[in-house]
Amino acid sequence: MEVDAGITVQRQESISTVVLNSPDKLNAMSRSMWRDLKAAFLEIQADSAIRCVVLRGAGSHFCAGGDIAEYPDFRFDEAALRRFHEDEVWGALAAMLACDVPIVAQIQGVCMGAGVEIASACDLRMAAEDSQFGAPIARLGFPMAAREAALVSGAVGEMTARAMLLAAEVFPASHMATQGFLTRVTPRAELEKVCLATAQRIAGLAPQAARLNKQTLRAVKRGADIDNPYGYATSAEHQEGISAFIAKRKPNF
Question: Which of the 8 DSSP states describes residue 142?
Answer without folding.
Answer: -
